[in-house]
Structure formats: structure tokens, C-alpha cells
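User: Can you help me understand a structure? I only have the sequence.
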Amino acid sequence: MTSSLETHAAQVYHEAASAAAAEVIRRYSTSFALSTRLLRGPVRDRVRCVYALVRVADEIVDGAAAGSGLSPEQIAASLDAYEVAVEEALRSGFSSDLVIHAFARTARETGIGTDLTRPFFASMRMDLERSAHTPESFSRYVHGSAEVVGLMCLRVFATDRSARPVAPAPELAAGARRLGAAFQKVNFLRDLHADAEARGRSYFPGLDPARLTDAQRDRLLDDIDEDLAAAREVVPALPGSSRAAVLAAHDLFAELSSRLRATPARRIRTHRVRVPGARKACIAARALARARSSRASVGSRGAGSGWRASAGERARERPVASPSSAEVWRASRPPPCWRPTATA
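Assistant: Let's start by predicting it. Here is the structure, written out as C-alpha cells:
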């Protein structure tokens, strides 16, 4: 039987784990940190917990592990051990690693299982084994590294404040996959030089990073823009607690796509395209306004819309404290440790 003291200790540990996850996102991604400020209720903390786990796994593969002097064999073993620890935490609900603990608690509350974590770790492992991709391996990589992360976040959005996991509608799942794929492919294009020079990788099948042409750039961006457009169609069907944040993230990457299209291929081959902090703040503020204006239509959409608010769900969408314009601006500013390889 659990004592009140043990229950209190567990709650303090849960809070410490969530705080650790929030610190990871603050340190590594100014854009994602800004978008999550637009999330409401428990959704915000849960999404941060998902991001933190994904970020740490990525650092094992691409950053901190090698920078700490680990050999390729040690890095592979570390990634394997991390996945084992994640699956054990999913079963038990506890981990001595705060980030894993935070993720496992979120996963158990929202229905994220090994059907999503295993493809993710498989893609991370591909980065240790491949320097170039075929169309088939590229598709598998994007699915595991990006689409399943979108599906994890969608599980969080769909569950919202429910006491038990809620399965999202198929059309929302399709939108989440395409949005995740678009994010990943934008990052591949803007990081073309860094991936090739620092890591010896070329993600796009059949493309030589050193010889990217304007025509190739446009073909890649046409594909990305199709994904973004398809994902944008389902944003109004998301719960109100996540709509503004997803729209902000979508619009930020649409902005990146637009800037990449306006950048000569010869420059993309050597420089990383960014969105200035002031522009990020404007995008976030605009997304917040658009999401608020679309809230009234959520309950009136047809059964095929993917998310139909019940009376209780509509009640939960009463206005709550949202980030002020000053907070949005502060969140858009890069922290002191910002580095060129941070996301967006």
C-alpha cells in the first residue's frame, strides 16, 4: 500500500521530470519553444516531454555523444541502451532518467506505445549506418524520424484533458504525418551543407549536396509545400488547446519553405536559411489570432472532420491565459546557448 509520503515524493519527482523536459526544449529549439507556449493545459507539458526524449536521442546520434569522445561503437550501444530504458519505463511507469520518466508518463497517459517509439529509434539507428538513401530507405527514415513524432504529438492533442487515451481520427493522423514529413524535409534542405560537410550524409535520394540546382530545389520544395498544404487542411479540426501552436509551427515552416525558394541553390549549398526572431514572433501572433477566430466553427463541423467538440470539450475551450505579445517576443529570442544546428 502506498503511503501519502510516497505519493507526495512521486508527485515531486513527476514535476522535476517535467521541468527537465522543459529545459531541454528551451536550450535546443527557439522555434519549437515558441510554438509550445501557444499550447494550453496539460498538452503543453506533455508535448515538451515528447520533444525532450526525441532531442536526447538525436544528441546521442549526432551531437553530445561524439563531442564527449564516444566511438561509433559506443554511440550505437548508448542508443540501444536508451531505447531499452524507454521501453522499460513504458512498462513500469518509472525511470531514474528524468527525461525518460517524463516521456513515459506522458506516453502512458496518451496511448503512445512501442508502435511509435520503435520506428523512431530505427531511424536514429539508420543515421549511424547510412550516409546516403534510396527512395525506399528515405521513406522509412522520414516515417520514423518525423512522421511518428507527429503522431506522438497528435496522441497528446487528441487526449487533451481526458483521463484516458483518445485515438485520433484517421484524417488527423494523415495530417500529422504529412506535417512531420514536411518539417523534416525542410530541415534536410536547409541543413544540406552541414549534413554533408560535418556528418558526411546526403538524405535526398540521388541528390549531390555540392551540386544542388535551382530546379532540384524547386522540385523538393514543391513536394514539401504539398505536405504543408495537406496538413494545413486539418488544423481547424484539432482541439482548441493545440490549434494555435500547430498553426504557428506550420506557418513557420511555410515561411522557411518560401525563403528557401527565394534563395539561390548555390547559397543553400553553403549557408543555412533562417527566419529572424521578429518574424517568428509575428507568425506566432498571427497563428494565435487565426486559431481563436476558427474556434467557433469546431463544434459545427461534420462527423468527418476528425474532431467534433462535445459540450464538455467546448466548455474547456473557454478563454484561458494566452501568451502576451511581449511573452511571444521573448520566447522568439534565441537563448545564449543557441547554435546553428538547433531546429528552426
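Now, to help you interpret it: The two ends are 47 Å apart (CA to CA). Residues 8-295+323-332 form a domain with the Farnesyl Diphosphate Synthase fold (CATH 1.10.600.10). Let me know which part you'd like to focus on.
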